[in-house]
Sequence to fold (297 residues):
Amino acid sequence: MSDLALYSPAAADGASVLKRSDVSVTRAAPLARLAFRGDATAAGKAGAAFGASLPMTPLAANPVGKRAALWLGPDEWLLLAAPETETQDVPWSLARSLFDEVETALATIPHALVDVSERNVALIVSGPGAARLLNTQVFLDLDESVFPVGQVTRTLFTKAEITLWRTAPDTFVLECWNSFAPYIEGLLATAPEDAT
Amino acid sequence: MLLIHCPWCGIERPEIEFRCGGEAHIDRPGQPGDLDDRQWADFLYMRSNPKGLLAERWRHVHGCGRFFNAVRHTVSDSFVCVYKTGEPCPDLEALAREGAQ
Fold:
């Protein structure tokens, strides 16, 4: 499973999408998610208000406890936060309070902040066969020398846009749009074993 | 599959993550109202369409989402160099001479 405190498997029945000896795919519990865009000044202030600084290095992620800031573009970040106590509901109040804190800190600075908590869902792909399973549909070289632990990127999963984050040598977190999830889960669950 | 270097991400990515945005360095006229129809049509539709090196706009649409410029050979489809939006166009003739050597 993911080594991060941020992601935990969803408790609901049917959270497991795929379970094989070498790899498992599990739906993650809901998170508060904010899409942030702005220049370096705005990003600095947003990071201070959010509790995890926004990385300036391309393809970098900055997980701090149950929060993380992911670099998506030179002026674009995805901010993730899990509630301090276990909950399986969409953490509305956390998303709302984080949104307000960042908005307050950036009152006079141009930026864009959108609550996307319900837009995204996450899948935890874990096990020695994780990279090979993802490579049935993802076009990137997922060897650790090229895609090291901690790297995060937007890319394509066949036709669906995803955000792929390697959180451990054998663990990836795949963030995708809610409406794309059945398509992605279906392709992962039916990936032929001999191809992986 | 073609690998394209994104100057914003600093990494090579498969071409399926990118979209071509047509010829680069075409400035929109400051006062379109001052142009006659032929000049406006030239701006809208007429492109250099060379057989050789061409500076193009590309967008890393399924990656960082940003536009950048790339010099591409229109015959071989090979990318000669990439540079960020706002940076000056490299000397295409010099690049062509380098490539020929």
